[in-house]
Design a protein that fits this description.
Order of helices and strands of chain B: EHEHEHEHEHEHEEEEHEHEEHHHHH
Strand content of chain A: 15-25%
Number of helices of chain A: 7
Shape of chain B: globular
Number of strands of chain B: 13
CATH superfamily of the largest domain in chain B: Glutaconate Coenzyme A-transferase
Number of strands of chain A: 15
CATH class of the largest domain in chain B: Alpha Beta
CATH architecture of the largest domain in chain B: 3-Layer(aba) Sandwich
Oligomer: heterotetramer
Number of domains of chain B: 2
Structural class of chain A: alpha/beta
Number of domains of chain A: 1
CATH architecture of chain A: 3-Layer(aba) Sandwich
Distance between the termini of chain A: 14 Å
Largest interface: A-B, 67 and 70 residues
Chain lengths: ~260, ~325, ~325, ~260
């Protein structure tokens, strides 16, 4: 079958969203994965955006932003940030979220704030590279019952320790997260262009649990910046079914996921 | 009561100054921000700004590229699918502009605390990370105990993190429609424009359309910004361009990239300023700069029907000019 | 997805129980409360309720007169110009029902804290008085340090009073219009129905009208209660009677006084129950009890025009019945 | 001139509202006084109700409630309690408010919660008489820059010490109020059916500063439950002008203030 690695990733992430759940998607990849799920199998999901766009299905392809007109054309409710990110997400009410990441470490901490020359320096210096800032990902990572991280699998992104924790995962691992009274349980899985990682019980270190027909365990280890452990029951992730691909492409009208990969 | 209509030039001259705390946006990155107001600030040469920008892309990008910004407080400074803002990057990476980061919700809650005049606002997310421990405004303090400190919840004995309030000097807020008194309707998500309109000491509205007050009396539940909190109203159609205004026009894909690329270098900024800021003075000139064909294309939006109920109250340019002269 | 329409009898049977924390109102005293839902609770004999009632007059009056209420949390329990609620007075003055008082804002902020899942909410008013020092729920403690305790504001070192959250088991909220999925529009002030719809664990809407979802898609900014927070929708026209529903009907002056006077004595309550609760089962019977002439008079309201934009989406009784049967 | 004591009171209170101010009025008397002022002289006031009814003028007479249809028919904005009582009033933004009172003491503390047999008992017992509860008056009294209290002048209402402080005035007098970080300055005056009282500097005890043509200093003292001091510069309050009465009656269409008196 002919599909890109981005398409495989979006479908793999979408498969983790279940019918009836309350779900929040960010812009870009995560919105495509979420709306693929909504169309394909997660019927009756209660999906919303950070800005409080409720009940909408994108028209004309991937929205340019999470309140873009492509996602605003058929909404049933428009509210606001404190409503959606506060009362629905931070409150602990939301079942599942999907976020992206510029940098991820082995405990699922995410950096979307900046890259530093000397990340070990505790003092705050101007970043070598300014990223976009955390956005609403901290609400999703602190408070969604579970969440999915999606990222292109590159060695420079998957690092031992992120330069800056924008959105907390399992922090220093183990039960480090427990000292905060977060309403959410932490990252459930990381879905990449090459495979799927899930946290090992007790340590909460992410380990490889799935690879694709288009990748290999070796390729994934080579492209990961920490010494990635492989789960004893690591599995080959099923390829997209024709119906899945059809539904994904109906959402990804502008072909964003087919551009590279 | 005189109406509150002001020209863009007057509004910027009267309500902005060097060194001020200026808030804009309170909408999403490629959404309804007061971009035209920001262009006029650049033209009038404002500098040393402390900008509260959540989470608006191109205006902050432009102000940073102009070297006008000392400090930014934000939660998201990207351009969503359009990528990273190069003007901001250049300013931040060079150390010219420093950025204090919070999460999206926590930025909104800081505005809520400002609007309520609370000493602080509780947070249940957006800490336990470097957002709590590191502060760009207090770089030498690590962990920075003052950025998102803890108090003891007297009901349970557990700790609770709290946020400091934001009370900007002036907010320039984009709305879809305003009446001449400053009652305003926003179509699309509010993001946190509602909270900002109550947190700021002064509020200037930038409106795509001016409508008769009869529209507000038909739809009072839509008027989330009432005249009592508004100081001035600027009529500026297509004022969000190249970003989108729900119900009216889409974002301008081509110009979004073009503008952002221009911000990469001082030369690019200068050229952009000459072509897209200094090149117009009136609304008609501004619209000519965008171009009629482009405007028609942008107005071919899937949200166009959302404006249908309100069209009959839209005031013409002539009526608006008459109201401004008549005071 | 099946729609969420339920009959009044089913909704009360399914979503209320003895001893529960029940919230209603979140509107103003003579305004849009779920009064018909309260009548059905009386008919079904609910008791030992902990009622969060802000600040709705006649429903609380009725439930108290029925002896169904152990505890009330409120901020205002009067009937505004219609005077004091005699059923509540009788219950409170006899010691049958105890009332914990907060200020109007602080009651709303407790709902906000519940909606946000905050451990507490800051307050800048409504303390420094017996509302802070005396507690009906903890009568032996004086001053009651737990009711509105203080924390230290870490930013200034000053003290700040904080409020406990409210998270009722179920809220019955009146809305002007709902669609079959539970998207809802309220005309008139929201008071704190918005916050209540997020603070309650379950939400039942009582709607004067059922409209097609196309109405919500035309006016998404008016849909302040989206379907995702709603569990059931009950269609019950004139359901606020004898109070008023903005855009639809005025309060019934005559019945407001009559009903309140009836609540003065157990006999009066029994007679009222027989005449105005046990006397109907269907919507048609309920409307007949009010009377056609009276209904016409109440609908002659100065706010009638506020409903104009939405009339074309109103569903008929037949269409609603078909939707309920069709599941 | 023919007018009632209620009308005199409403006009006397209305005269204390000035053009351009942000003002909040409750239901009943205070709404009539406020809208009289708005019509008569306080042009351009920004008036609102507790529930966030903005820009409205009552039609058809006194509204039955503060969100009644009579005040909702021509509003320019409808918001909600946290907006109006919170962001406009509790925040300290509102210039002036008018409240009513069931019981008032010499320091301007107001009781609208209940009457007790033994008010001195610190324990909380069921009240002998349940009143309506404080409503939004605590926000007005804690946070408006200044406020006006209106009440029928009867000995049982004007007491040495209220049974329960629902809405704080000057508490135990002097600077007792200062220990709370209230945004508002305290009660500016009490307007009654018989006269006007204002706080004495330093002690903040309310003293008589004005009486009406229809009352006398003696009558006022007799109808006050504490030993009411009379200001050295006590004044006869000017009678309603024909224009004032005309404007008041245009607001009080249903003649609520003419019913007794």
């Amino acid at each position: 079958m002919n599909y890109t690695r981005q398409e495989m990733m979006a479908i793999a992430a979408g498969r983790e969203i279940y019918a009836g759940e309350m779900a929040i998607f960010g812009v870009g990849l995560s919105m495509l994965a979420g709306h693929f799920a909504k169309r394909n199998h997660a019927f009756g999901i209660k999906d919303l955006t950070e800005g409080g766009v409720y009940g909408a299905t994108p028209v004309g392809g991937l929205p340019w932003g999470i309140e873009d007109n492509r996602i605003s054309a058929n909404a049933t409710s428009f509210t606001h940030c404190i409503d959606a990110l506060g009362m629905m997400v931070a409150s602990g009410r939301c079942d599942v979220g999907i976020i992206g990441a510029a940098q991820i470490d082995k405990y699922g901490n995410v950096n979307t704030t900046g890259l530093w020359e000397e990340p070990a320096n505790p003092a705050y210096l101007p970043p070598k590279t300014r990223l976009s800032g955390s956005g609403g990902a901290p609400e999703i990572t602190c408070s969604c019952k579970r969440y999915i991280i999606m990222a292109a699998h590159e060695k420079k992104r998957f690092v031992e320790k992120v330069d800056y924790i924008s959105s907390p995962g399992y922090l220093s691992g183990g039960d480090a997260r427990a000292r905060y009274n977060f309403h959410g349980g932490g990252p459930a899985l990381i879905v990449t262009t090459l495979g799927i990682m899930r946290p090992e019980p007790v340590t909460n270190e992410f380990i490889l649990t799935g690879y694709y027909h288009s990748s290999s365990i070796e390729e994934i280890k080579e492209n990961t910046g920490w010494d990635l452990k492989v789960a004893p029951d690591v599995q080959l992730v099923p390829e997209p079914s024709p119906r899945e691909l059809e539904n994904l492409r109906a959402v990804d009208q502008t072909g964003m996921l087919r551009k590279k990969g | 009561m005189p109406n509150k209509l002001l020209s863009m030039q007057e509004a910027v001259a009267q309500y902005t100054w060097d060194g001020m705390q200026y808030a804009h946006g309170a909408s999403l990155s490629v959404g309804p921000d007061s971009v035209a107001f920001g262009r006029e600030m650049v033209r009038q040469g404002r500098k040393n700004l402390h900008v509260m920008s959540h989470c608006c892309g191109q205006q902050l990008n432009l102000l940073c590229a102009a070297g006008a910004v000392d400090r930014v407080e934000t939660a998201f400074s990207g351009l969503e699918v359009y990528g990273f803002p190069y003007g901001l990057r250049r300013a931040v990476e060079s150390g010219r502009t420093i950025v204090e980061d919070y999460s999206n919700l926590n930025f909104s809650l800081r505005l809520l605390a400002g609007a309520m005049n609370w000493p602080f606002c509780p947070a249940v997310s957006g800490y336990g990370s470097d957002q709590e421990w590191r502060s760009a405004f207090s770089p030498e303090e690590y962990p920075c105990d003052k950025k998102i400190p803890e108090v003891m919840d007297p009901f349970t004995g557990k700790t609770c993190h709290v946020l400091s309030p934001l009370k900007p000097d002036v907010a320039a807020i984009h709305v879809t429609m305003a009446d001449p008194d400053g009652n305003a309707i926003m179509l699309g998500t509010e993001w946190n424009r509602y909270e900002l309109s109550r947190a700021a000491k002064k509020v200037v509205l930038q409106a795509d359309l001016i409508v008769d007050t009869a529209c507000m009396r038909q739809y009072p539940n839509l008027v989330r910004i009432p005249d009592v909190v508004v100081d001035a109203v600027v009529y500026w159609p297509l004022g969000v361009w190249p970003q989108c205004s729900t119900g009216l026009y889409d974002s301008d894909e081509e110009h979004m990239y073009y503008m952002n690329n221009a911000m990469k270098t001082p030369e690019g900024f200068d050229e952009y300023k000459q072509k897209y800021i200094d090149s117009y003075h009136t609304i008609d000139e501004y619209l000519a700069v965008i171009g009629k064909g482009k405007i028609n294309k942008l107005q071919d939006t899937a949200t166009w029907h959302l404006m249908d109920p309100y069209r009959k109250w839209i005031m013409s340019s002539e009526e608006i000019v008459k109201l401004m002269d008549g005071r």
